[in-house]
Amino acid sequence: MPPISAPVRAMLVLGTRPEAIKLAPVARAMAASPLFEPIVVTTGQHREILHQMLDLLQVGDRIELDMMRERQQLSTLTARLIDALGEVIRERRPDLVVVQGDTTTALTGALGACYERVPVAHVEAGLRTGVLDNPFPEELNRTLIAGMARWHFAPTPRAAEHLRAEGVPESAVFITGNTVVDNLLWVLAEDTGTSHFATGLRRVLLTLHRRENQGDVMRGMGRAVRRLADRGDVEILVPLHKNPAVRETLLPELTGHPGIRVVEPLDYPDFSATLAACDLVLTDSGGIQEEAPTLGKPVLILRTTTERAEAVEAGVAKLVGTEPEAIVNAAVALLDDRAAYARMATARNPFGDGHASTRIVAQLATAFGAHAAAVPPPASPAARPSPRAGATAAPS
Ligand code: UD1
Ligand code: UDP
């Protein structure tokens, strides 16, 4: 790439809550550097829960699209996004497009950029379960984006190894840590959030939303949570995703129990403070699987696969699957066995040191021939565990 004299115009495309959280520190790092001019495009794939995050993105130029439709189908959402993003990219002609993760917004952002011959940087590249339809459609999306990106920012050595094994050249893969850690440390240091736990009981934080679990599987998970609440010594807090398919499944199972409190999605500072205050996390969320280990909070992953096996190997997460019996047993075991709890509640975090965004922006500066010294230097890289594929839950 030839050296360029004007600031690099980087278009960051995001549309869902986790993309806002994970790209905000990259946008901040770019805005703080004279070498970059960030343009943030929000597709509005999510509406309310993305708007809750927009304060994080008060940097640079912002273009807001309003693409969400109630109960949107993947095919129509994809078609509408590629059309709208193609137009924005054609109009603004950025020097690069940055996408994050595995959502429909990320897939269409990358594809739209490729169609306009704009190079793509992929943040959080290389996570794999090895099961193409789980998580669905995220494993497929992330794999497809790898075929389009010029720069692959892998959060861990394992993710980098997946990319190399798929034929991505070594020179295009950079191990950076996950930007979710950057933002979590930043928001906790800001200290503006409040925990939403209300009692002195054992504090359990629950989130569920995954598409592949919606329906009967999620209903069974709801029943398991209710059985856990029957113990009487836990406060289970559930910031419920806005997705109506999630709400109509979970609300009948979770409401009306004194041990369970269902609330609207929390804004990011409050969610982070709530996570920091909890004793145990039950979740199918990707981002929360990465945040909880940062704070040494034991996580029970309510999924049959995970592309974040590093947390399981670090001992702070357990992949318990989606069977009600397995969920109740795993939670009870942790709540009742102090030694088992203490073993998991270690603050060993495999997802980074809080400097991922700086590394990403420094690497992009180098790629565009600018002087990387204008970006603060990254800290030393994390230790390298041996790479392996994503984990799969043992049958219960
Ligand atoms: C999407 C991502 C998933 C990510 C999740 C984060 C895809 C294919 N999936 O899944 O990877 O883990 O976001 O939360 O991109 N809705 C609202 N208000 C909102 C947000 C959603 O009403 O603020 C409802 C709408 O009816 C929408 C539905 O939720 O149709 C589903 O949203 P969608 O973005 O299609 O998928 P998610 O399951 O949220
Ligand atoms: N989060 C939040 N408020 C909530 C629940 C989650 O701010 O009520 C944040 C959380 O800190 C994490 C992200 O949302 O960074 C995870 O989003 P989600 O679970 O929707 O998506 P996933 O990470 O599974 O793609």
Gist of the model:
Helices cover 41% and strands 16% of the residues. The protein has helices at 17-31, 48-51, 74-92, 104-115, 138-146, 157-165, 179-190, 216-229, 244-254, 268-277, 286-294, 309-313, 324-336, 338-344, 356-367; strands spanning 8-14, 36-42, 61-64, 96-100, 120-123, 151-154, 173-175, 202-207, 234-239, 260-263, 280-283, 299-301, 305-306, 317-319, 391-392. A 7-stranded parallel β-sheet has the order 3-2-1-4-5-6-7, with helices on both faces. Strands 10-9-8-11-12-14 form a 6-stranded parallel β-sheet, with helices on both faces. Strands 13-15 form a two-stranded antiparallel sheet.
Would you give an account of this structure?
- The protein has two domains: 8-189 and 352-383, Rossmann fold (3-Layer(aba) Sandwich), CATH 3.40.50; 194-345, Glycogen Phosphorylase B (Rossmann fold, 3-Layer(aba) Sandwich), CATH 3.40.50.2000.
- Helices cover 41% and strands 16% of the residues.
- It contains 15 helices and 15 strands.
- Strands 3-2-1-4-5-6-7 form a seven-stranded parallel sheet, with helices on both faces. A six-stranded parallel sheet has the order 10-9-8-11-12-14, with helices on both faces. The protein has a two-stranded antiparallel ribbon with strand order 13-15.
- The structure holds uridine-diphosphate-N-acetylglucosamine and uridine-5'-diphosphate.
- The site of uridine-5'-diphosphate has 16 residues, from helix 1, helix 10 and helix 11.
